[in-house]
Amino acid sequence: MSDWNDGPPASPLAAGLGAKCPRCGQGKLFDGYLKIRPGCDVCKLDYAFANAGDGPAIFVMLLVGFVIVGGALTVEVLYRPPMWVHVALWVPLTLGLALAVLRPLKAFMIALQYTHQAREGRLSS
């Protein structure tokens, strides 16, 4: 597998939205829904560097929480529906939005990690 300094990176936004390789923008990044592949089939980039950690989950909680809480408050103030309507409306919408946003956000963060050559912090000895 090649070093990640070989060649210019693809657009982080395009690679993230398409869940593609951060270097070539063509190879698949994931095996399944969120599991990172060992490497790119097209440009042979090793994905060992790819560790988004909890970043995508934090951003999903912030973004989806903002949309859901804002929507729930707006619906409550305007229509005052019974509580079962809120549960029936906001629980599936929360799950759907979180699942729809998590994968592209994780791919985007990995693409940014590659683009900016972010690495794990090390103490010099």
Structural class: mainly alpha
Spatial extent as radius of gyration: 19 Å
Distance between the termini: 29 Å
Low-confidence parts lasting 5 or more residues at pLDDT below 50? none
The strand order across the widest sheet is 1-2
Number of helices: 3
**Mean pLDDT value:** 91
Reading the helices and strands in chain order gives HEEHH
Provide structural commentary.
The chain has helices at 12-18, 55-79, 83-115, and strands at 30-31, 35-36. The chain has 125 residues and is mainly alpha-helical. The protein contains three helices and two strands; from the N terminus they run αββαα.
Question: Notable features of this structure?
Answer:
52% helix, 2 strands, two-stranded antiparallel ribbon, 125 residues, elongated, mainly alpha
Architecture blueprint of SSEs:
Blueprint: H1 12-18, E1 30-31, E2 35-36, H2 55-79, H3 83-115
Antiparallel strand pairs: 1-2
Helix pairs in contact: 1-3, 2-3
In short:
The chain is mainly alpha-helical. 52% of the residues lie in helices and 3% in strands.
